[in-house]
## 1
Amino acid sequence: MADISEYYRAGGERTRLTTGGGLLEALRTRDILTRYLPPAPARILDVGGATGAYAGWLADAGHTVHLVDPIAGHVAAAAELPGVTAAVGDARALTEPDDSADAVLLLGPLYHLLDRADRITAWREAARVVRPGGVVVAATISRFASMHDGFVKGFYDDPRFLPIVERALATGVHRNTEPGRTWFTDAYFHRPEEPAAEAREAGLDVTTVAAVEGSLWQLPDLDRILADPERTALLLDLLRRVEHEPSLHGTSSHLVTVATRP
């Protein structure tokens, strides 16, 4: 976990959700949350919520939000957001009481738990702290994301990148230990069928699996489209219509899995 912590302490992805594919991810994730979270006011536990990109937005919408993250700097930044409390913690060993949240977000932890047993533990902890009938919403990165990203961002110009992609395609494990690396840190990249299977093993009922960006995160002129409100509205509407289409799930950079506690 040292490489992961170093990546985020150095400000990794601090502005990722503000432009291009990252902005599309944020807009689509908010759209999905709006439709599947309970209405405000609800108590939401944002596990691995970083500096509060979603926690602050949810608090503004009238929810009570507590954020948990392993990086102290993230926690300090999130705690400054109006209506958000925050604490250092681990998705695999939450200090929250049983049945204490109306909804639990796992919009980051499953990225960085490379062992399946650890991911199941995180799912089970979310299931423990959410109330019966409550919602758990988890984000995962596609098995094929780095393969596409290498072309979109020109990463294959560096010969060290291809072996990282080849390992991720074969095993799901993305290891980035190269000196001076600018690529994403160590992570696990899920196949489309894996998140739902993990949630079910943790005792949750899966409601849906939705493609977040579909294949459109790869568009070279995405910033121009997202700068146009009418085009953005059209883009979001069309992605919403096809988000449950299984044949498109592997093309999306991220998937969101929504589950409920029986």
Note: The domain at 2-142+188-260 is CATH 3.40.50.150 (Rossmann fold).
## 2
Amino acid sequence: MTEPTKMLDVTDISLRFGGVKALTDISFHVDEGEIFSLIGPNGAGKTSMLNCISGRYKPQEGSILFDGKDLLSRSINDRAKIGIGRTFQNLALFSHMSVIDNILVGRHHMMKNNFLTGMLYWVGGAQKEEAAARAEIEDIIDFLEIQHVRNEPAGSLSYGLRKRVELARAIAIKPKLILLDEPMAGMNLEEKEDMARYIIELNEQYGITVVMIEHDMGVVVDISHRVAVLDFGQKIAEGLPEEVVEDEQVKTAYLGIDDFSMDDEKEVG
């Protein structure tokens, strides 16, 4: 049996803000083709960990490798160029811009912008590139079933639709790895089912590896291949989702109860 290929390798990451320890010696890896979930209570350090991977935060200690290459020395834009996409817990859309223009923003780093060749490129290639980009974006719009709002201002949409638009923008960079920060927060049951389906299809049909923060334990168990649990900035468990949610330390430290099981139909806030 072929060993899985590590896409992301996080080793001994520690992050401090002044005297506050946000992360302490966090290590885990994500294999190519996985849906890997980070779970834990509010303030556990989950978003801080995503911010270290995406480049918003720079940890004081540790290393992060992406496809075997150092990630921490790269800028946020460089990380997008090598195939890391990101969505946010709090929506980061341009409210006044149309859905399609918001998605086009996700491709800005892929446009040719060399100063010396810029004028010649604009004459010879820009129109072709823009046409190709728009064709790919139309495919994303079809995939996420947002054709009916493609020309609407993003700020006028329902919360669930805005979540889809932000996912579309992250997909537009053609990521190998996508970081999803609470993609289903604030959604009703039907919207969550749709988002879960999109994430599974991104992973299985498009081959995109996923690292996801999510509080809905039903979703985590249903769609994740592996799970890591953070509490007070430390990793307290890692493994298969059905095993992790039955771990006594996870039940107590993360869920705060002693009788949680994967059969419970409740969300963890």
Note: The chain has ten helices and ten strands.
## 3
Amino acid sequence: MFFLSKEHLNNEIDFKDVLLMPIDEFYNHSTYGQLNFVNSYEYWNIKNAQYVIIAEKEWIESISEEVKQFILNSQVQSERGLVLPASFIQDIEKIPSNYVVNGHVVIQRSMWEKLDESSKEQLLTTMVYEWWDKGECKEAPMSLPNFLKPFANTFGHYQGANCLASVLFAISKGKQEWFIYEWIHQKTFLEKLKQYHYKEFLGEVLYLGDIVVWKDKDEIIQHAAYYIGDGLYFNKHGQTMFNPWKILSQVELYKEWQHLTPVKYRQCN
């Protein structure tokens, strides 16, 4: 995918071998609205793009060098995902030079597949540390429930798994492992809390299995975490595969969401 502004269309680009899709149609497309695309290209960051080129992976290699550089430069300008500062790459000489544009590396599938595994690992590790998560977490306590141990302080392999899904997996006591990989929305989350007999409470003391959610001024849930005891929570920030499931302290968690209102839930049998 290559994101272009109207101004970019004034250049002599041959579009007969690709799809040129208006951005509003693209965002509403059932295929290109899938989470793998949304999170990888970070649609929420894209600026000044009115069209999208959708092409087979080798197309970018088949066009003239001049047009290729023009298109790749437009990816930097649009601020789409899969564009990294060149400083993130230790061995920049391993990156094909025509994918290094204005101090950035534009990742495309064909060039990515040709990189060696060590270069991929270094690039991804640096990207995660610089942009997504620096790895701060608490060691999993001995008392951690067994069903949480495979996930605590680990990265997932799927896009879309969010904090609400993590909590629903936890309150199922691990019986519904597939919950943790879902992208759960508020109404589904609250309905599931009712089914598991969770209700709001106002006490200060928390017990294993309690839930804390953080709401904004419009009563929209922005985050949720599962209490595991000893002032620790099972937590996931964000819905990308670069947001790990982590054990966090109450101090860290409340600091992160201090601009929102915490609401507590407890299972009532």
Note: The chain has a mean pLDDT of 94.
